[in-house]
Amino acid sequence: MSGEKINVSVVCPGFVNTRILLGDTHRPDKLLNPPEDVIESNRGEDYLLQFFSSIEEGFKETYLMPPNEAADIIFQGIKEEKFYIFTHKDQLMKKMVKERFDEILKELDT
After folding, report:
1. CA–CA distance from 72 to each of 9, 16, 21 (Å)?
2. Span 55-77, average pLDDT
3. Following DSSP, what letter does each residue of the chain receive, concatenated?
4. How far is 96 from 100, CA to CA, in rounded Å?
5. pLDDT cut 70: percent of the chain above it
6. Residue 16 falls inside a structural domain
């Protein structure tokens, strides 16, 4: 691969209208992760499911991006060789990114 140009993109999707959070509910037992490999997190699937159940239906309809629209944004970002590709660039996404970076910066002080 010497001389080949390789680009990498980090896709940071907002809320896309998929059922990905429910994927584990349909996973066959033989494909479940062993308990020792499960990472406990207070910001994982339970957090997101709680978030979605607490918001207004109208918000879901206006904020959840259709998958084909998200795909268009992602593929356009790849074509433009962007490193970070965000599907949403609104205040909620900015707030979530800031909270995540604040958590990362806090770890540098420990």
Report:
1. 14, 12, 22
2. 83
3. -TT------EEE---BSS-GGGGGGG--GGGSPPGGGPPP-TTSHHHHHHHHHHS-HHHHHHHSBPHHHHHHHHHHHHHTT-SEEES--SHHHHHHHHHHHHHHHHHHT-
4. 6
5. 70
6. yes
pLDDT at 87 (0 to 100): 96
The two tokens of residue 102 are 């604040």
**Nearest alpha carbon to residue 17 among 69, 55, 56, 54:** 69
Mean of the per-residue pLDDT values for the chain? 82
pTM of the model: 0.66
Which pair of structure tokens corresponds to residue 1?
């691969």
Token duo for residue 36: 């020792």
- Report if residue 45 sits inside a domain: yes
Number of domains observed in the structure of the chain? 1
